[in-house]
C-alpha cells in the first residue's frame, strides 16, 4: 500500500518526495563566507558539536530536538496545565503512550539518556553484560558508568556499507544465544534492541527478528528492553519492506513492536518531534522498581524534568507518528539524497535508512588512517566547503577501552541528519552538489589529532586540530573553482 505522497506521480517521470505539509513559520538562514567558516573551525576545535549556529548554514548535526512541530503540537503547548503534581498534561501524555505504544505505566524523563541512566542504575551492576543489536553512544556510556559492558550482536551484513539487505539492524539470534550461554543469564540484566540502529546508518530491524529475540528472552527469562527513539521510522520501513505487514496500519505495527518488549524507552527529541522522553511498561514490578529514581534524577512523576508544554507536544506528536504522510517525510528525503549520491559513485550507506544520510569516510578518506579520524576530518572538510554541519560517527564517537587504548569504530561515517519536515528539496540538492565537489577533491582532505580529550563522551566537547595546512589548501581550491561564491 502506498502512502499519499507516493501516490502522486510526476509527468516528468521523476521520483520526487512531495511534501504533504505547508511551511507556516520560517527561520532565516545565513551562509557565511568560507574564510569565516575556516576561522569557526579553528575556534571550535574542528569538532562540529562546538560550532555556533551563526556560522552554520544547514544544520544537519542531528535529528534530536530539531524537528519541525505541527500546528496541532504548538496549539497544544498553549493549553498546557502548569502544575508540579497531577498535571492534566501528564494525563494526556499517559493516554497517548497507552494508545500509541500500548503501555499503561509511564515514567517521564527529560530526554532519552535520562531513561538510560535510570534503567542502568536499576539493573546494571559491576560485571553485567548487556547484549544488543548495536550500541548508541549514551546507552553505552550509562551501562559502562554503572560497571557493565555491552555486546553487539549484529549479522555480518550490517557492516557492509553497500547492501540491499532490508533489515541491517536485525539482532544475530545465534550469537545472542551463544552470548547468554557464555555469560549465563544471571549476568545479563536485560537484552536491548534499538529501533533503527542509529550508529550504523539508521537501519531498521524486522518484526520477525524482534519475535526471535523475544523467544530467546523468554527461554532464558531475561527482560527485553526496546529503545524506541526511532521507532516511528522503523515501523514505517517494516510496512515498506516486510511482506507480512504490507497492509497493516502504522498503529498496529507499532503496537506489535512494543508488545514484544517488557520495557520501552524513548527520546521524545526524535519520536514525537518535541523534547523530552519516557519509560513505559505494562509490568507493575518494573514500574515500581524504577519509579523512585524519577524524582531523584528527573523531577516529580508528572513532569520528569520536562516543561509541561513539551509534555503536551509529545502527546500530540505520538499520535502524529501514526500518520504515514508525516512519518515518511524524513526517510523519503534521505532516500532521495542517498540515491542521488550513489548514482554519482559517492559511497553512502545503503539501503537508505532513517534519521540521515550516512557518507562512508573510510572510502572517501581512504588515504587517512583511522588514528587520524577520517570521519571527523570529512565532517570538518564538508562544513568548510558548504556551511553544512554534519556529525562524525566514527572513532571520535567511540570511547577508549579500560586501559586507555583507542577502540576504532567499525564504520567511519559522516552523518548528515535530515530533521523531520525542516529542509526543502533545493537545500537537499545543495548538499548533493557540494558533497560531489568535495568527493572530486577528496585528496585534499587531511587527518586530525586530539588536542583536548575529555574522559567521557569525548566527541561532544573534544578539541582537535588538523595535522597540517590541508584546510587552507582545500579552501584555496574552493576559491579557484567557485570564484567569489559563498
Ligand atoms: C538520541 C538517542 C538516544 C538519546 O536520547 P537523548 O534525548 O538525546 O538523550 C538514545 N537512543 C537512541 C537510539 C537515540 O537515537
Automatic annotation (TrEMBL):
Residues 59-432 form the Aromatic amino acid beta-eliminating lyase/threonine aldolase domain. GO terms for molecular function: carbon-carbon lyase activity. Its cofactor is pyridoxal 5'-phosphate. InterPro entries: ArAA_b-elim_lyase/Thr_aldolase, Beta-eliminating_lyase, PyrdxlP-dep_Trfase, PyrdxlP-dep_Trfase_major, PyrdxlP-dep_Trfase_small. Belongs to the beta-eliminating lyase family. The modification N6-(pyridoxal phosphate)lysine is found at residue 270. It comes from the Bacteria. This is Tryptophanase. It comes from Dysgonomonas alginatilytica. Keywords: Lyase, Pyridoxal phosphate. The keyword Lyase applies. GO terms for biological process: aromatic amino acid metabolic process. PANTHER family: BETA-ELIMINATING LYASE-LIKE PROTEIN-RELATED (PTHR32325), TRYPTOPHANASE (PTHR32325:SF4). The keyword Lyase applies.
Amino acid at each position: 500500500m502506498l502512502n499519499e505522497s507516493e501516490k502522486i506521480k510526476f509527468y516528468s517521470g521523476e521520483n520526487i518526495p512531495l511534501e504533504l505539509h505547508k511551511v507556516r513559520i520560517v527561520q532565516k538562514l545565513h551562509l557565511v563566507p568560507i574564510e569565516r567558516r575556516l576561522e569557526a573551525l579553528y575556534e571550535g576545535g574542528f569538532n562540529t558539536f562546538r560550532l555556533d549556529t551563526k556560522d552554520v548554514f544547514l544544520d544537519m548535526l542531528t535529528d534530536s530536538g530539531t524537528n519541525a512541530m505541527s500546528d496541532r503540537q504548538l496549539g497544544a503547548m498553549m493549553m498546557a496545565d502548569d502544575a508540579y503534581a497531577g498535571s492534566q498534561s501528564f494525563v494526556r501524555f499517559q493516554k497517548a503512550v497507552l494508545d500509541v505504544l500500548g503501555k499503561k505505566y509511564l515514567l517521564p524523563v527529560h530526554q532519552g539518556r535520562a531513561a538510560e541512566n535510570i534503567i542502568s542504575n536499576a539493573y546494571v551492576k559491576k560485571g553485567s553484560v548487556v547484549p544488543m543489536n548495536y550500541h548508541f553512544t549514551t546507552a553505552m556510556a550509562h551501562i559502562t558508568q554503572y560497571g557493565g559492558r555491552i555486546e553487539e550482536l549484529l549479522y555480518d551484513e550490517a557492516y557492509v556499507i553497500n547492501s540491499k539487505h532490508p533489515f541491517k539492524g536485525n539482532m544475530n539470534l545465534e550469537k545472542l544465544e551463544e552470548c547468554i550461554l557464555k555469560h549465563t543469564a544471571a549476568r545479563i540484566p536485560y537484552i536491548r534492541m534499538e529501533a533503527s540502529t542509529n550508529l550504523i546508518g539508521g537501519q531498521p530491524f524486522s518484526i520477525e527478528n524482534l519475535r526471535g529475540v523475544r523467544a530467546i528472552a523468554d527461554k532464558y527469562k531475561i527482560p527485553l528492553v526496546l529503545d524506541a527513539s526511532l521507532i516511528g521510522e522503523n515501523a514505517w520501513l517494516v510496512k515498506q519492506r516486510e511482506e507480512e505487514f504490507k497492509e497493516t496500519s502504522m498503529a498496529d505495527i507499532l503496537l506489535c513492536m512494543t508488545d514484544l518488549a517488557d520495557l520501552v524507552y524513548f527520546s521524545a527529541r526524535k519520536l514525537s518531534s518535541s523534547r523530552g522522553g519516557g519509560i513505559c511498561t505494562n509490568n507493575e514490578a518494573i514500574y515500581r522498581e524504577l519509579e523512585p529514581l524519577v524524582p531523584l534524577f528527573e523531577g516529580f512523576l508528572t513532569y520528569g524534568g520536562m516543561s509541561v508544554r513539551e509534555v503536551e507536544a509529545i502527546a500530540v506528536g505520538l499520535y502524529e507518528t501514526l500518520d504515514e504522510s508525516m512519518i515518511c517525510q524524513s526517510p523519503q528525503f534521505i532516500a532521495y539524497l542517498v540515491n542521488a549520491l550513489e548514482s554519482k559513485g559517492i559511497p553512502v550507506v545503503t539501503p537508505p535508512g532513517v534519521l540521515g544520510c550516512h557518507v562512508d569516510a573510510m572510502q572517501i578518506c581512504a588515504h587517512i588512517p583511522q588514528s587520524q579520524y577520517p570521519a571527523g576530518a570529512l565532517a570538518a572538510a564538508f562544513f568548510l566547503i558548504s556551511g553544512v554541519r554534519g556529525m562524525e560517527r566514527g572513532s571520535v564517537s567511540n570511547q577508549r577501552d579500560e586501559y586507555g587504548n583507542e577502540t576504532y569504530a567499525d564504520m567511519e561515517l559522516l552523518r548528515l541528519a535530515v530533521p523531520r519536515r525542516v529542509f526543502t528539496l533545493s537545500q537537499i540538492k545543495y548538499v548533493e552538489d557540494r558533497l560531489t565537489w568535495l568527493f572530486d577533491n577528496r585528496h585534499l582532505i587531511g587527518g586530525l589529532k586530539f588536542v583536548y580529550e575529555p574522559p567521557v563522551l569525548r566527541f561532544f566537547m573534544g578539541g582537535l586540530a588538523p595535522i597540517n595546512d590541508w584546510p587552507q589548501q582545500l579552501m584555496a581550491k574552493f576559491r579557484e573553482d567557485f570564484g567569489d561564491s559563498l
